[in-house]
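Problem: given the chain below (408 residues), write out its structure.
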Amino acid sequence: MNIVNLFKIALRALANNKLRGFLTMLGIIIGVASVITMLAIGQGTKRSIQAQISEMGSNMIMIHPGNGEKHGGGVRQSTSSMQTLQVEDYKAIVNKVSLVSIVSPYVSSGGQFIYGANNYPSSVIGVSPEYLEIRKMAVGEGDMFTSQDIQSSSKVCVVGKTIVDNLFTEGEDPIGKVVRFNKIPFRIVGVLTAKGYNSMGMDQDDIVLAPYTTIQKRVLAITHIQQIYASAVSEEMTKKAIEEIDDILRTNHKLKPADDADYNIRSQEEVSSMMTSTSDMLTILLACIAGISLIVGGIGIMNIMYVSVTERTREIGLRMSVGAKGRDILAQFLIEAILISVTGGIIGVILGLLCSLGVNVFLAWPIFIQPYSVLLSFAVCTITGVFFGWYPARKASDLDPIEAIRYE
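Solution.
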């Protein structure tokens, strides 16, 4: 039988049962739309995380005290309570590591900022001016504190937009104003350029930077530093820079080759790899959950094709008695199954794209629609139609014409 005639017969059969055909497509539509939407959210989140990490400096190196192992009694100490990193370590990295371009120590303390009748809980971070370049930050108004401020442990600070909005509610110019942090006065010398929230929902403008010596002496009363941040001369040199830093610190800390390091060095590349791996796993999980709908939709196609074969048994018998061959009957029912799945796939793709855009517009979630996800979903739904439509179609083609005509 002519393939065009088979398509006409299949379309006529589906037109006679529009509602049933649409309900059968619904499983495919929901499955395809779910897969596209979930993959778009997963890929969007992954790209957003990569962009945020890149903004913080892809060649950034972080040095923490302790080696991440549990100490006596099975209790893991917090890095802020460990005292294995000293100012001498920071200075040694500055002077002796050739593959590092900039370095900054890091100490922090939490507390309450007060200005007039307003107060806001936050943390003050003690760093050197180089910290801005390491973290890809910039001063929008005023100036950054200087090396002279570090030497003299000056009580000055640079604040983020969130701090300004919560303390200076009357719209005052914060530059030159004095705020108190746990009863210690700090004069604001600059305001950082706003960066907003990152992909993990953290407010990047809720930040106060001050000279690290000021935080050490006047706030925490310590001589050690809590962390060291550095930037390698290039992203490609990050691994070698870490090796240089490791050699310097082992020498400074008088560690033997067999001794475990009392510090931990991590690169931004490692963090990026870990976050990307986690994001990929979540994306696959979401896609698998959404893909279950495609299987359910396929079972729906098989079920409805069985019903169709049973209802049209006499019709099949008549067609075969006037010359239709088994392969023609097989092709006819297979075309019906494929039309249902392909039509459902097209509607599902359109719905998936609209849902992805809706998630981005109304929920402000990052999305990225990859062409392969659309093509893959469409291919899967076509294969589903063939796979689940084959057996009912085969059953129809194997009917005996005489018995089919007698069927009631």
